[in-house]
Amino acid sequence: MKAFTIVSLAAVGALALTACGGGSTPNETGGEPVIDGTLTAAISRDPGLLFQPLNPSSALGAVSTWAYERLVYFDTDGQPQGWLAESWEETPTSLHFVVRDDAVCSDGTKLTAETIANNFRWIADPANSSTALGTVVPADATIEHDDTSVTITTEKPNPFMITAVGSQTIYCQAALDDPQSVATSTNGTGPFVMTEAVTGDHYSFERRDDDTWGPKGAPTGETPGYPKNVVVKIVENESTRANLLLSGELNIAAIAGPDEERVADKVDLLSQNTLISGGILYSQAEGQPTTDKDVRIALTKALNLDELMQVSTAGKGERAPRLAVAKPQVCQYDAATPNLPKTDIAAAEKLLDAAGWVKGADGKRSKDGTPLVLEFAWQTRGAEIAATAEMMAEQWAEIGVGTNHLGAEYGAFIERISTPGAASELDVIWLAANLPVPSSLMPYFSGPSPDKGNNFAALSNPEFDKLVAEANTHTGQEACDAWEVAEAEMYASADYVPFAVAFESTYSQGTASHEIDELYTSLILVK
Q1: Which CATH architecture has domain 274-504?
Q2: Where are the domains of the chain?
Q3: Would you say the pTM of this structure is higher than 0.85?
Q4: Are β-strands 38-43 and 229-234 bridged in parallel, bridged antiparallel, or unpaired?
Q5: How many CB atoms lie under 10 A from the CB of residue 414?
Q6: What is the residue-wise DSSP string for 253-306?
Q7: What is the 3-state secondary structure (H, E, C) of 366-423?
Q8: What pLDDT digit, counting tens, does each position of 428-473 carry?
Q9: Looking at the domain that runs over 38-267+509-525, which CATH code has it been given?
């Protein structure tokens, strides 16, 4: 049910055998361990380039998590725990990690503090055009290292930096030197290494029996039931995934929509994450009708956001309360519902009339001879998305506003909205960006547009930017309180209108939980 969905840092470990923290609910099915078996998982689309600094796709996380590790993971309370980092210190403007010295890359080289630092330097280098610049590594970051540690400092405060930085996939040096070398393979310190990549069909992995540096209690090749092989299949159709799971041909799959009802009672819930699944940006590029705040508010007042939520989530979601809903949920507040413009058709028409967009004899609005027709870009994935986009067009048509649908599959959609100048051609963009902290999402709502940044709709709200700067000077609950105020300004101005949250459930069968250090669990295969 997701349209454009940025990698959720907390969710990417949902399928991992060694990092199911951050709110998962592992199954507890017993059984005889399957020795050196094959675990088979399914995802809904091909992840594309297997190099996360250049690919924000949520599908990539479900593949890369088998072969790569991170500095920290997050336990069931959302607190960071050591992984490649043995310890760390944080302030609003710095992170200092002491890193372990025994991790070995799949190419046989040792993972060093310098290589870990180089991962963040690669992202921070503007010449690399990393999509993680600003979302993972702040644009003003300075990265330093010595033999045992990595330090990241920023000029501007960033109270949630450990969530983004600590969760970033760490690549080995050869991958950083040549990202194309891992376009369809892997080179990390994770417990598995990719052995086969068939784009659009499947990705196969084999266990590394030399892996002994995982978190305390993590399974190894000596653990009964720990898979020898993992196969991640691309199964686009939801019903097909459900059928394969129920028949035992899959061990793990995310299932949503109507098919979830027939799966939930027969197999185990492995994990559940909360994700923004529906939201729209209004372009504020010069000359676009939606640059006018009153026009944006009018268009939003014409929409029934509750109905749109119901359709986009197949009746299984909720209204979106804030920007960052993915686990681990650092902040919890509802800034969106009370501040987004409420449905009011009469008020919407008055605002458009006052803005000069008046109805003609045919009931359609225009201004100075230019019709008000919205160029609407959205991703053609799932019947729910298409139905929601069509419902929006119908609701806008009721106030005399036309819509030109620009639906496209994922790759073409991303290319369209990422093209420099796209905001001058598009009026509305479907955006469902998911990260666990609001500060990491800011490149999508402020700052430069492509190709210098990811502000796809050229949003410009000086008051919002001012409030964000103030929020970043705080820590803890004070930071969350300040972010609530900042987001309220964005919603009241109808810059971004998030309207739906979906619950992404991953189910499993033929597996059992393996407790690790009382903090999180991994999975083993059972008969």
Answers
A1: Roll (3.10)
A2: 38-267+509-525, 274-504
A3: no
A4: parallel
A5: 19
A6: EE--THHHHHHHTTSEEEEEEEEEEEEEEE--STT-GGGSHHHHHHHHHTS-HH
A7: EECCEECEEEEEEECCCHHHHHHHHHHHHHHHCCCCEEEEEEECHHHHHHHHHCCCHH
A8: 999 998 888 898 889 899 999 998 888 999 999 999 999 999 998 8
A9: 3.40.190.10
